[in-house]
Protein backbone atom coordinates (compact mmCIF):
# COMPACT_ATOMS: atom_id res chain seq x y z
CA UNK A 1 0.00 0.00 0.00
CA UNK A 2 1.23 3.49 -0.84
CA UNK A 3 1.03 5.91 2.07
CA UNK A 4 1.57 8.96 -0.11
CA UNK A 5 3.40 10.27 -3.16
CA UNK A 6 6.87 10.70 -1.70
CA UNK A 7 9.83 12.22 -3.58
CA UNK A 8 11.39 8.77 -3.85
CA UNK A 9 8.26 7.31 -5.39
CA UNK A 10 7.98 10.26 -7.73
CA UNK A 11 11.59 9.76 -8.89
CA UNK A 12 10.98 6.09 -9.59
CA UNK A 13 7.73 6.88 -11.42
CA UNK A 14 9.36 9.52 -13.62
CA UNK A 15 12.25 7.21 -14.41
CA UNK A 16 9.86 4.39 -15.26
CA UNK A 17 7.77 6.58 -17.55
CA UNK A 18 10.83 8.00 -19.31
CA UNK A 19 12.62 4.70 -19.89
CA UNK A 20 9.62 2.55 -20.75
CA UNK A 21 8.05 5.20 -22.98
CA UNK A 22 11.25 5.76 -24.97
CA UNK A 23 11.95 2.06 -25.49
CA UNK A 24 8.33 1.44 -26.49
CA UNK A 25 8.52 4.43 -28.84
CA UNK A 26 11.48 2.83 -30.62
CA UNK A 27 9.74 -0.50 -31.18
CA UNK A 28 6.31 0.92 -32.01
CA UNK A 29 7.62 3.65 -34.33
CA UNK A 30 10.03 1.28 -36.09
CA UNK A 31 7.28 -1.33 -36.54
CA UNK A 32 4.73 1.19 -37.82
CA UNK A 33 7.23 2.82 -40.18
CA UNK A 34 8.17 -0.61 -41.51
CA UNK A 35 4.49 -1.28 -42.17
CA UNK A 36 4.16 2.19 -43.68
CA UNK A 37 7.03 1.52 -46.07
CA UNK A 38 5.52 -1.80 -47.14
CA UNK A 39 2.17 -0.10 -47.76
CA UNK A 40 3.77 2.66 -49.84
CA UNK A 41 5.80 0.14 -51.85
CA UNK A 42 2.79 -2.08 -52.51
CA UNK A 43 0.56 0.80 -53.57
CA UNK A 44 3.29 2.27 -55.80
CA UNK A 45 3.55 -1.02 -57.66
CA UNK A 46 -0.16 -1.02 -58.46
CA UNK A 47 -1.90 0.83 -61.27
CA UNK A 48 -4.01 3.83 -60.37
CA UNK A 49 -5.83 4.16 -63.71
CA UNK A 50 -3.92 7.19 -64.99
CA UNK A 51 -3.26 5.81 -68.49
CA UNK A 52 -1.97 7.46 -71.63
CA UNK A 53 -4.97 9.78 -71.85
CA UNK A 54 -4.19 11.11 -68.43
CA UNK A 55 -0.57 11.65 -69.35
CA UNK A 56 -1.50 13.68 -72.39
CA UNK A 57 -4.13 15.66 -70.50
CA UNK A 58 -1.78 16.68 -67.72
CA UNK A 59 -1.58 20.48 -67.67
CA UNK A 60 1.89 21.99 -67.70
CA UNK A 61 3.44 25.35 -67.13
CA UNK A 62 5.02 27.08 -64.17
CA UNK A 63 2.08 27.55 -61.84
CA UNK A 64 3.56 26.35 -58.57
CA UNK A 65 4.59 29.70 -57.16
CA UNK A 66 8.34 29.05 -57.13
CA UNK A 67 10.78 31.75 -58.17
CA UNK A 68 10.80 32.33 -61.93
CA UNK A 69 13.90 30.90 -63.57
CA UNK A 70 16.38 31.76 -64.89
CA UNK A 71 15.82 35.30 -66.10
CA UNK A 72 14.46 36.72 -62.82
CA UNK A 73 16.59 39.77 -62.17
CA UNK A 74 16.31 39.86 -58.38
CA UNK A 75 17.86 36.44 -57.82
CA UNK A 76 21.08 36.80 -55.83
CA UNK A 77 24.37 35.59 -57.21
CA UNK A 78 25.26 31.95 -56.59
CA UNK A 79 27.88 32.83 -53.98
CA UNK A 80 25.45 35.00 -52.06
CA UNK A 81 22.80 32.29 -52.24
CA UNK A 82 25.27 29.75 -50.85
CA UNK A 83 26.20 32.07 -48.00
CA UNK A 84 22.51 32.56 -47.27
CA UNK A 85 21.73 28.87 -46.90
CA UNK A 86 24.87 28.24 -44.79
CA UNK A 87 24.59 31.36 -42.62
CA UNK A 88 20.92 30.70 -41.90
CA UNK A 89 21.86 27.29 -40.53
CA UNK A 90 24.57 28.90 -38.40
CA UNK A 91 22.09 31.43 -37.01
CA UNK A 92 19.61 28.65 -36.22
CA UNK A 93 22.37 26.75 -34.45
CA UNK A 94 23.39 29.86 -32.49
CA UNK A 95 19.86 30.41 -31.19
CA UNK A 96 19.53 26.72 -30.37
CA UNK A 97 22.74 27.08 -28.36
CA UNK A 98 21.33 30.15 -26.59
CA UNK A 99 18.05 28.38 -25.80
CA UNK A 100 19.96 25.34 -24.54
CA UNK A 101 22.04 27.60 -22.29
CA UNK A 102 18.90 29.09 -20.75
CA UNK A 103 17.59 25.54 -20.25
CA UNK A 104 20.85 24.56 -18.53
CA UNK A 105 20.87 27.67 -16.34
CA UNK A 106 17.39 26.89 -15.00
CA UNK A 107 18.44 23.41 -13.94
CA UNK A 108 21.86 24.50 -12.62
CA UNK A 109 20.29 27.15 -10.40
CA UNK A 110 17.73 24.64 -9.14
CA UNK A 111 20.43 22.05 -8.44
CA UNK A 112 22.27 24.58 -6.26
CA UNK A 113 19.29 24.60 -3.90
CA UNK A 114 18.59 20.87 -3.93
CA UNK A 115 22.22 19.74 -3.81
CA UNK A 116 24.30 22.57 -2.26
CA UNK A 117 28.00 21.86 -2.83
CA UNK A 118 29.63 25.10 -1.66
CA UNK A 119 31.86 25.02 -4.74
CA UNK A 120 31.03 28.59 -5.68
CA UNK A 121 31.24 29.89 -9.24
CA UNK A 122 33.32 27.00 -10.67
CA UNK A 123 30.87 24.46 -9.23
CA UNK A 124 27.92 26.34 -10.66
CA UNK A 125 29.54 26.62 -14.12
CA UNK A 126 30.32 22.91 -14.03
CA UNK A 127 26.65 22.22 -13.37
CA UNK A 128 25.62 24.49 -16.23
CA UNK A 129 27.95 22.64 -18.58
CA UNK A 130 26.65 19.25 -17.49
CA UNK A 131 23.05 20.33 -18.18
CA UNK A 132 24.18 21.80 -21.53
CA UNK A 133 24.94 18.34 -22.96
CA UNK A 134 21.66 17.94 -24.98
CA UNK A 135 22.98 20.56 -27.40
CA UNK A 136 25.60 18.05 -28.56
CA UNK A 137 22.83 15.63 -29.52
CA UNK A 138 20.84 18.41 -31.22
CA UNK A 139 23.85 19.45 -33.33
CA UNK A 140 23.61 16.67 -35.98
CA UNK A 141 19.86 17.29 -36.33
CA UNK A 142 20.39 20.98 -37.13
CA UNK A 143 23.67 20.72 -39.07
CA UNK A 144 23.52 17.40 -40.96
CA UNK A 145 26.20 15.93 -43.16
CA UNK A 146 29.30 17.24 -41.35
CA UNK A 147 30.69 14.48 -39.08
CA UNK A 148 33.87 16.47 -38.42
CA UNK A 149 31.76 19.25 -36.95
CA UNK A 150 30.03 16.82 -34.58
CA UNK A 151 33.37 15.31 -33.51
CA UNK A 152 34.83 18.78 -33.03
CA UNK A 153 31.83 19.81 -30.93
CA UNK A 154 32.24 16.75 -28.72
CA UNK A 155 35.94 17.45 -28.22
CA UNK A 156 35.28 21.09 -27.31
CA UNK A 157 32.56 20.04 -24.89
CA UNK A 158 34.88 17.53 -23.23
CA UNK A 159 37.70 20.08 -22.98
CA UNK A 160 35.51 22.73 -21.35
CA UNK A 161 34.07 20.11 -19.00
CA UNK A 162 37.60 19.15 -17.93
CA UNK A 163 38.58 22.80 -17.43
CA UNK A 164 35.48 23.45 -15.30
CA UNK A 165 36.22 20.35 -13.25
CA UNK A 166 39.83 21.34 -12.71
CA UNK A 167 38.73 24.81 -11.59
CA UNK A 168 36.11 23.38 -9.20
CA UNK A 169 38.74 21.04 -7.78
CA UNK A 170 40.65 24.09 -6.48
CA UNK A 171 37.76 24.95 -4.13
CA UNK A 172 38.10 23.21 -0.77
CA UNK A 173 34.48 22.55 0.14
CA UNK A 174 35.30 19.68 2.58
CA UNK A 175 36.66 20.77 5.98
CA UNK A 176 39.84 19.35 7.40
CA UNK A 177 39.82 17.21 10.52
CA UNK A 178 42.19 15.36 12.82
CA UNK A 179 41.87 11.85 14.20
CA UNK A 180 44.73 11.07 16.56
CA UNK A 181 47.96 11.40 14.67
CA UNK A 182 46.18 11.53 11.31
CA UNK A 183 45.35 15.02 10.01
CA UNK A 184 43.47 15.69 6.79
CA UNK A 185 43.65 19.24 5.46
CA UNK A 186 40.63 20.97 3.82
CA UNK A 187 40.05 19.52 0.34
CA UNK A 188 37.69 19.51 -2.62
CA UNK A 189 35.01 16.91 -3.24
CA UNK A 190 35.65 17.24 -6.97
CA UNK A 191 37.76 14.49 -8.55
CA UNK A 192 37.79 13.09 -12.08
CA UNK A 193 35.83 10.11 -10.80
CA UNK A 194 33.10 12.21 -9.16
CA UNK A 195 32.88 14.45 -12.24
CA UNK A 196 32.33 11.45 -14.49
CA UNK A 197 29.86 9.91 -12.04
CA UNK A 198 27.76 13.10 -11.84
CA UNK A 199 27.75 13.51 -15.62
CA UNK A 200 26.63 9.90 -16.16
CA UNK A 201 23.96 10.23 -13.46
CA UNK A 202 22.50 13.34 -15.11
CA UNK A 203 23.01 12.58 -18.81
CA UNK A 204 23.62 8.86 -19.12
CA UNK A 205 20.05 7.58 -19.23
CA UNK A 206 18.54 10.30 -21.45
CA UNK A 207 21.49 10.10 -23.86
CA UNK A 208 21.01 6.36 -24.21
CA UNK A 209 17.29 6.85 -24.67
CA UNK A 210 17.83 9.49 -27.38
CA UNK A 211 20.22 7.19 -29.22
CA UNK A 212 17.66 4.40 -28.96
CA UNK A 213 14.45 6.27 -29.69
CA UNK A 214 15.71 8.87 -32.17
CA UNK A 215 17.67 6.66 -34.54
CA UNK A 216 16.98 6.82 -38.27
CA UNK A 217 14.60 3.83 -38.18
CA UNK A 218 12.16 5.63 -35.88
CA UNK A 219 13.08 9.33 -35.96
CA UNK A 220 10.44 10.62 -38.37
CA UNK A 221 7.58 9.16 -36.29
CA UNK A 222 9.20 9.49 -32.84
CA UNK A 223 7.51 12.77 -31.73
CA UNK A 224 4.01 11.49 -32.48
CA UNK A 225 4.52 8.02 -31.05
CA UNK A 226 6.34 9.39 -27.99
CA UNK A 227 3.48 11.77 -27.14
CA UNK A 228 1.01 8.91 -27.50
CA UNK A 229 3.05 6.42 -25.41
CA UNK A 230 3.95 8.90 -22.65
CA UNK A 231 0.30 9.88 -22.24
CA UNK A 232 -0.84 6.26 -22.11
CA UNK A 233 1.87 5.10 -19.69
CA UNK A 234 1.91 8.23 -17.53
CA UNK A 235 -1.86 8.32 -17.16
CA UNK A 236 -2.07 4.62 -16.38
CA UNK A 237 0.73 4.87 -13.80
CA UNK A 238 -1.03 7.80 -12.13
CA UNK A 239 -4.20 5.74 -11.82
CA UNK A 240 -2.24 2.77 -10.43
CA UNK A 241 -0.52 4.96 -7.84
CA UNK A 242 -3.91 6.32 -6.82
CA UNK A 243 -5.40 2.84 -6.77
CA UNK A 244 -2.82 1.58 -4.27
CA UNK A 245 -3.00 4.61 -2.01
CA UNK A 246 -5.04 4.43 1.22
CA UNK A 247 -8.14 6.15 -0.29
CA UNK A 248 -7.81 4.07 -3.47
CA UNK A 249 -7.64 0.75 -1.64
CA UNK A 250 -10.59 1.66 0.58
CA UNK A 251 -12.67 2.74 -2.41
CA UNK A 252 -11.79 -0.37 -4.41
CA UNK A 253 -12.57 -2.66 -1.46
CA UNK A 254 -15.89 -0.93 -0.88
CA UNK A 255 -16.82 -1.24 -4.57
CA UNK A 256 -15.88 -4.94 -4.47
CA UNK A 257 -18.11 -5.58 -1.46
CA UNK A 258 -20.99 -3.63 -2.99
CA UNK A 259 -20.89 -5.41 -6.34
CA UNK A 260 -19.59 -8.81 -5.33
CA UNK A 261 -16.80 -8.62 -7.93
CA UNK A 262 -13.38 -10.09 -7.19
CA UNK A 263 -10.96 -7.36 -6.14
CA UNK A 264 -8.14 -8.81 -8.24
CA UNK A 265 -10.32 -8.69 -11.31
CA UNK A 266 -11.20 -5.08 -10.52
CA UNK A 267 -7.51 -4.20 -10.33
CA UNK A 268 -6.84 -5.80 -13.72
CA UNK A 269 -9.94 -4.14 -15.20
CA UNK A 270 -8.82 -0.76 -13.86
CA UNK A 271 -5.43 -1.19 -15.48
CA UNK A 272 -6.98 -2.13 -18.84
CA UNK A 273 -9.53 0.70 -18.79
CA UNK A 274 -6.88 3.24 -17.75
CA UNK A 275 -4.56 2.16 -20.55
CA UNK A 276 -7.42 2.32 -23.06
CA UNK A 277 -8.66 5.74 -21.92
CA UNK A 278 -5.23 7.33 -21.79
CA UNK A 279 -4.30 5.61 -25.03
CA UNK A 280 -7.22 7.39 -26.69
CA UNK A 281 -6.15 10.67 -25.08
CA UNK A 282 -2.62 10.10 -26.37
CA UNK A 283 -3.99 9.46 -29.86
CA UNK A 284 -5.96 12.71 -29.70
CA UNK A 285 -2.80 14.51 -28.56
CA UNK A 286 -0.92 13.07 -31.53
CA UNK A 287 -3.67 14.36 -33.81
CA UNK A 288 -3.39 17.81 -32.22
CA UNK A 289 0.37 17.77 -32.91
CA UNK A 290 -0.31 16.69 -36.50
CA UNK A 291 -2.88 19.44 -36.94
CA UNK A 292 -0.46 22.04 -35.63
CA UNK A 293 2.03 20.82 -38.20
CA UNK A 294 -0.53 21.06 -41.01
CA UNK A 295 -1.44 24.57 -39.89
CA UNK A 296 2.26 25.52 -40.00
CA UNK A 297 2.48 26.24 -36.28
CA UNK A 298 5.33 23.74 -35.91
CA UNK A 299 7.88 22.02 -38.11
CA UNK A 300 9.38 18.54 -38.34
CA UNK A 301 12.68 19.77 -36.88
CA UNK A 302 11.05 21.67 -34.02
CA UNK A 303 8.98 18.59 -33.10
CA UNK A 304 12.10 16.47 -32.98
CA UNK A 305 14.14 18.99 -30.99
CA UNK A 306 11.26 19.62 -28.57
CA UNK A 307 11.05 15.87 -27.90
CA UNK A 308 14.79 15.72 -27.25
CA UNK A 309 14.85 18.63 -24.77
CA UNK A 310 11.67 17.41 -23.05
CA UNK A 311 13.24 14.00 -22.55
CA UNK A 312 16.24 15.57 -20.82
CA UNK A 313 13.97 17.90 -18.83
CA UNK A 314 12.04 14.90 -17.51
CA UNK A 315 15.14 13.03 -16.36
CA UNK A 316 16.80 16.15 -14.93
CA UNK A 317 13.64 16.98 -12.97
CA UNK A 318 13.59 13.43 -11.64
CA UNK A 319 16.79 14.09 -9.67
CA UNK A 320 15.53 17.45 -8.40
CA UNK A 321 12.39 15.86 -6.95
CA UNK A 322 14.62 14.46 -4.20
CA UNK A 323 14.49 17.95 -2.69
CA UNK A 324 10.70 17.97 -2.59
CA UNK A 325 7.67 17.46 -4.78
CA UNK A 326 7.54 21.15 -5.72
CA UNK A 327 10.71 20.79 -7.77
CA UNK A 328 8.80 18.87 -10.46
CA UNK A 329 7.67 22.32 -11.62
CA UNK A 330 11.18 22.91 -12.99
CA UNK A 331 10.34 20.57 -15.90
CA UNK A 332 7.81 22.89 -17.58
CA UNK A 333 9.71 25.99 -16.43
CA UNK A 334 12.96 24.95 -18.12
CA UNK A 335 11.19 23.89 -21.31
CA UNK A 336 9.15 27.11 -21.50
CA UNK A 337 12.34 29.14 -21.00
CA UNK A 338 13.94 27.16 -23.85
CA UNK A 339 10.99 27.76 -26.17
CA UNK A 340 10.75 31.48 -25.33
CA UNK A 341 14.43 31.93 -26.15
CA UNK A 342 13.93 30.25 -29.52
CA UNK A 343 10.90 32.46 -30.20
CA UNK A 344 12.95 35.56 -29.36
CA UNK A 345 15.66 34.36 -31.73
CA UNK A 346 13.21 34.00 -34.59
CA UNK A 347 11.87 37.49 -34.01
CA UNK A 348 15.33 39.04 -33.82
CA UNK A 349 16.88 37.16 -36.73
CA UNK A 350 16.94 39.03 -40.02
CA UNK A 351 15.62 36.88 -42.86
CA UNK A 352 16.25 37.21 -46.54
CA UNK A 353 13.20 37.96 -48.70
CA UNK A 354 10.96 34.90 -48.96
CA UNK A 355 11.58 33.53 -52.47
CA UNK A 356 10.97 29.80 -52.65
CA UNK A 357 13.64 28.27 -54.88
CA UNK A 358 12.24 24.82 -55.45
CA UNK A 359 14.62 21.88 -55.80
CA UNK A 360 13.45 18.61 -57.37
CA UNK A 361 15.32 15.56 -56.06
CA UNK A 362 15.47 12.54 -58.38
CA UNK A 363 17.50 9.43 -57.68
CA UNK A 364 18.13 5.74 -58.22
CA UNK A 365 15.66 4.07 -55.86
CA UNK A 366 18.00 1.15 -55.16
CA UNK A 367 20.48 3.47 -53.40
CA UNK A 368 18.48 3.15 -50.17
CA UNK A 369 20.26 4.65 -47.17
CA UNK A 370 22.88 6.42 -49.33
CA UNK A 371 20.16 8.34 -51.14
CA UNK A 372 18.45 9.10 -47.83
CA UNK A 373 21.70 10.43 -46.34
CA UNK A 374 22.34 12.68 -49.33
CA UNK A 375 18.82 14.09 -49.26
CA UNK A 376 18.99 14.77 -45.51
CA UNK A 377 22.34 16.50 -45.91
CA UNK A 378 21.14 18.70 -48.77
CA UNK A 379 17.76 19.37 -47.17
CA UNK A 380 19.40 20.56 -43.96
CA UNK A 381 20.66 23.58 -45.88
CA UNK A 382 18.55 23.97 -49.03
CA UNK A 383 15.36 24.23 -46.98
CA UNK A 384 16.64 27.60 -45.78
CA UNK A 385 16.06 29.00 -49.27
CA UNK A 386 13.41 26.79 -50.80
CA UNK A 387 11.31 23.64 -50.65
CA UNK A 388 12.30 20.23 -51.98
CA UNK A 389 10.05 18.14 -54.21
CA UNK A 390 10.52 14.42 -54.66
CA UNK A 391 8.57 11.34 -55.70
CA UNK A 392 8.20 9.05 -52.71
CA UNK A 393 9.83 5.65 -53.05
CA UNK A 394 10.74 2.73 -50.81
CA UNK A 395 14.13 4.32 -50.12
CA UNK A 396 12.76 7.58 -48.66
CA UNK A 397 9.30 6.56 -47.50
CA UNK A 398 10.22 6.33 -43.81
CA UNK A 399 12.56 9.31 -43.59
CA UNK A 400 10.38 12.02 -45.17
CA UNK A 401 6.94 11.00 -43.92
CA UNK A 402 5.05 13.97 -42.48
CA UNK A 403 2.92 13.73 -39.31
CA UNK A 404 -0.44 13.98 -41.07
CA UNK A 405 0.60 11.42 -43.69
CA UNK A 406 1.67 9.01 -40.95
CA UNK A 407 -1.62 9.42 -39.07
CA UNK A 408 -3.58 9.00 -42.31
CA UNK A 409 -1.74 5.73 -42.83
CA UNK A 410 -2.71 4.58 -39.34
CA UNK A 411 -6.29 5.60 -40.11
CA UNK A 412 -6.30 3.64 -43.38
CA UNK A 413 -6.38 6.74 -45.59
CA UNK A 414 -2.90 6.64 -47.13
CA UNK A 415 -4.40 6.02 -50.58
CA UNK A 416 -5.85 9.54 -50.48
CA UNK A 417 -2.33 10.93 -50.93
CA UNK A 418 -1.61 9.04 -54.17
CA UNK A 419 -1.78 10.56 -57.65
CA UNK A 420 -4.35 8.54 -59.58
CA UNK A 421 -5.39 10.89 -62.41
CA UNK A 422 -4.81 14.37 -63.85
CA UNK A 423 -7.23 15.94 -61.35
CA UNK A 424 -5.55 14.40 -58.31
CA UNK A 425 -2.15 15.43 -59.70
CA UNK A 426 -3.36 18.99 -60.07
CA UNK A 427 -4.60 18.88 -56.47
CA UNK A 428 -1.24 17.53 -55.23
CA UNK A 429 0.59 20.27 -57.13
CA UNK A 430 -1.73 22.95 -55.74
CA UNK A 431 -1.42 21.57 -52.19
CA UNK A 432 2.38 21.78 -52.11
CA UNK A 433 3.81 23.51 -49.05
CA UNK A 434 5.49 26.65 -50.41
CA UNK A 435 5.79 28.91 -47.37
CA UNK A 436 8.25 28.86 -44.51
CA UNK A 437 7.62 27.06 -41.24
CA UNK A 438 7.88 29.05 -37.98
CA UNK A 439 11.55 28.09 -37.72
CA UNK A 440 12.25 29.68 -41.12
CA UNK A 441 12.66 26.47 -43.12
CA UNK A 442 10.70 25.33 -46.14
CA UNK A 443 9.31 21.81 -46.34
CA UNK A 444 9.87 18.63 -48.34
CA UNK A 445 6.90 17.89 -50.60
CA UNK A 446 6.64 14.16 -51.27
CA UNK A 447 4.47 12.90 -54.13
CA UNK A 448 2.94 9.44 -53.88
CA UNK A 449 2.55 7.89 -57.32
CA UNK A 450 1.32 4.63 -58.84
CA UNK A 451 3.35 2.89 -61.52
CA UNK A 452 1.23 4.57 -64.21
CA UNK A 453 1.23 8.11 -62.77
CA UNK A 454 4.83 8.88 -61.76
CA UNK A 455 5.84 10.05 -65.24
CA UNK A 456 3.10 12.69 -65.26
CA UNK A 457 4.14 13.84 -61.80
CA UNK A 458 7.78 13.96 -62.91
CA UNK A 459 6.87 16.19 -65.84
CA UNK A 460 5.09 18.72 -63.63
CA UNK A 461 7.73 18.74 -60.91
CA UNK A 462 10.79 19.31 -63.09
CA UNK A 463 9.04 21.88 -65.28
CA UNK A 464 7.92 23.93 -62.30
CA UNK A 465 10.96 23.58 -60.06
CA UNK A 466 13.87 26.01 -60.21
CA UNK A 467 16.58 23.35 -59.96
CA UNK A 468 16.78 19.59 -60.43
CA UNK A 469 19.29 17.29 -58.76
CA UNK A 470 19.48 13.74 -60.03
CA UNK A 471 21.44 11.25 -57.92
CA UNK A 472 22.88 8.73 -60.38
CA UNK A 473 25.12 6.85 -58.01
CA UNK A 474 24.73 3.11 -58.63
CA UNK A 475 23.08 3.92 -61.99
CA UNK A 476 23.05 1.08 -64.52
CA UNK A 477 21.00 -0.38 -67.38
CA UNK A 478 18.61 -1.88 -64.83
CA UNK A 479 17.24 1.55 -63.86
CA UNK A 480 14.57 2.03 -66.52
CA UNK A 481 12.88 4.86 -64.60
CA UNK A 482 16.11 6.85 -64.49
CA UNK A 483 16.53 6.41 -68.24
CA UNK A 484 13.15 8.07 -68.78
CA UNK A 485 14.02 10.89 -66.35
CA UNK A 486 17.37 11.56 -68.02
CA UNK A 487 15.85 11.76 -71.48
CA UNK A 488 13.09 14.03 -70.22
CA UNK A 489 15.57 16.41 -68.56
CA UNK A 490 17.71 16.68 -71.69
CA UNK A 491 14.68 17.13 -73.95
CA UNK A 492 12.59 19.54 -71.87
CA UNK A 493 14.65 21.33 -69.19
CA UNK A 494 17.38 23.95 -69.89
CA UNK A 495 20.78 22.49 -69.12
CA UNK A 496 21.65 25.19 -66.58
CA UNK A 497 18.75 24.12 -64.31
CA UNK A 498 19.82 20.57 -63.51
CA UNK A 499 22.78 18.63 -62.18
CA UNK A 500 23.70 14.94 -62.30
CA UNK A 501 25.53 13.37 -59.34
CA UNK A 502 27.80 10.37 -59.92
CA UNK A 503 30.50 8.44 -58.07
CA UNK A 504 32.55 5.29 -58.58
CA UNK A 505 29.43 3.11 -58.30
CA UNK A 506 27.93 4.73 -61.42
CA UNK A 507 28.16 2.75 -64.66
CA UNK A 508 29.73 5.68 -66.49
CA UNK A 509 30.14 3.97 -69.84
CA UNK A 510 26.42 3.20 -69.94
CA UNK A 511 25.65 6.73 -68.73
CA UNK A 512 27.76 8.25 -71.54
CA UNK A 513 25.99 6.06 -74.07
CA UNK A 514 22.57 7.08 -72.70
CA UNK A 515 23.49 10.76 -72.80
CA UNK A 516 24.80 10.57 -76.38
CA UNK A 517 21.59 8.90 -77.55
CA UNK A 518 19.41 11.44 -75.71
CA UNK A 519 21.32 14.44 -77.09
CA UNK A 520 21.23 12.94 -80.57
CA UNK A 521 17.41 12.63 -80.50
CA UNK A 522 16.67 16.22 -79.46
CA UNK A 523 13.74 17.84 -81.29
CA UNK A 524 14.07 21.30 -82.79
CA UNK A 525 11.97 22.92 -80.06
CA UNK A 526 14.11 21.58 -77.19
CA UNK A 527 15.73 24.33 -75.06
CA UNK A 528 19.00 22.38 -75.27
CA UNK A 529 19.18 22.07 -79.06
CA UNK A 530 22.66 23.05 -80.18
CA UNK A 531 24.27 22.43 -76.78
CA UNK A 532 27.20 19.97 -77.04
CA UNK A 533 26.63 16.70 -75.19
CA UNK A 534 30.03 17.17 -73.51
CA UNK A 535 28.56 20.07 -71.51
CA UNK A 536 26.20 17.78 -69.60
CA UNK A 537 26.33 19.10 -66.00
CA UNK A 538 27.85 16.29 -63.94
CA UNK A 539 29.24 16.41 -60.43
CA UNK A 540 31.37 13.63 -58.93
CA UNK A 541 30.28 13.43 -55.30
CA UNK A 542 32.74 12.71 -52.51
CA UNK A 543 31.18 11.77 -49.16
CA UNK A 544 31.78 13.98 -46.15
CA UNK A 545 31.37 17.64 -45.29
CA UNK A 546 33.59 18.99 -48.05
CA UNK A 547 31.79 17.01 -50.72
CA UNK A 548 28.41 18.22 -49.44
CA UNK A 549 29.60 21.85 -49.37
CA UNK A 550 30.85 21.61 -52.94
CA UNK A 551 27.59 20.02 -54.09
CA UNK A 552 25.55 22.78 -52.43
CA UNK A 553 27.64 25.38 -54.24
CA UNK A 554 26.98 23.69 -57.57
CA UNK A 555 23.26 23.54 -56.80
CA UNK A 556 23.27 27.27 -56.10
CA UNK A 557 24.71 27.72 -59.59
CA UNK A 558 21.65 25.98 -61.05
CA UNK A 559 19.44 28.86 -59.86
CA UNK A 560 21.34 31.28 -62.10
CA UNK A 561 21.15 31.86 -65.84
CA UNK A 562 24.70 30.82 -66.75
CA UNK A 563 25.26 27.05 -66.98
CA UNK A 564 28.10 25.43 -65.08
CA UNK A 565 29.27 22.23 -66.68
CA UNK A 566 31.78 19.47 -66.33
CA UNK A 567 32.80 16.99 -68.96
CA UNK A 568 31.83 13.41 -68.19
Structure, explained:
The protein contains 19 helices and nine strands. It folds into three domains: 56-75 and 355-557, Rossmann fold, CATH 3.40.50; 89-176 and 186-213 and 334-347, no CATH class; 215-298, no CATH class. The radius of gyration is 28 Å and the shape is globular. Helices cover 59% and strands 6% of the residues. It has a seven-stranded parallel β-sheet, sandwiched between helices. A two-stranded antiparallel sheet has the order 1-2. With 568 residues, it is an alpha/beta fold.
User: What oligomeric state do the depicted chains represent?
Assistant: single chain
- Secondary structure category: alpha/beta
Rg on CA atoms, Å: 28 Å
Per DSSP, the total helix count is 19
The CATH architecture of the largest domain can be named as 3-Layer(aba) Sandwich
Mean pLDDT across every amino acid position: 83
The fold-level CATH name of the largest domain is Rossmann fold
Taking strands numbered 1, 2, ... along the chain, how are they ordered across the largest sheet? 5-6-4-3-7-8-9
Question: What spatial form do the alpha-carbon principal axes imply?
Answer: globular
Layout: helices, strands, pairs:
Layout: H1 7-44, H2 51-57, H3 78-114, H4 120-131, H5 134-142, H6 147-168, E1 177-179, E2 182-184, H7 192-213, H8 222-243, H9 246-259, H10 263-294, H11 300-320, H12 330-348, E3 359-363, H13 369-382, E4 388-391, H14 403-410, E5 418-419, H15 422-430, E6 444-449, H16 454-464, E7 467-471, H17 480-492, E8 498-502, H18 508-520, E9 538-540, H19 545-557
Parallel strand pairs: 3-4, 3-7, 4-6, 5-6, 7-8, 8-9
Antiparallel strand pairs: 1-2
Helix pairs in contact: 1-7, 1-8, 1-11, 3-4, 3-5, 3-11, 3-12, 3-19, 4-6, 5-11, 7-11, 8-10, 11-12, 16-17, 17-18
Amino acid sequence: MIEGLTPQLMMVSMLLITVVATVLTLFIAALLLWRYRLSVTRTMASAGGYGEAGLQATPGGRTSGYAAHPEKADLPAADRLYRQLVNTTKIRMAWQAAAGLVFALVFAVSAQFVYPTELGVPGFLTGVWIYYWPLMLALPLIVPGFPRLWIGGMLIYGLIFAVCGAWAATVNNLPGYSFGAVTLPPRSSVTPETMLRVWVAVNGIPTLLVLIGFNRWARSAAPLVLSWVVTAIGGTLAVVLGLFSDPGVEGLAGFSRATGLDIRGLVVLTWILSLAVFGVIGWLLARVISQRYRERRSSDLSLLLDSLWLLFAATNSMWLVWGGMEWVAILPLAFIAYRLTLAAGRLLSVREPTVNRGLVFLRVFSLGQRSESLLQGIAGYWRNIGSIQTITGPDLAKSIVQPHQFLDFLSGRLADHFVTDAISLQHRIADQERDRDPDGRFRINSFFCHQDSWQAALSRLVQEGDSVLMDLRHFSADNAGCLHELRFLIREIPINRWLLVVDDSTNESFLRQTLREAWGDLPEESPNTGVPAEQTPVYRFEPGGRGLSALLRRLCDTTQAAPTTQTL
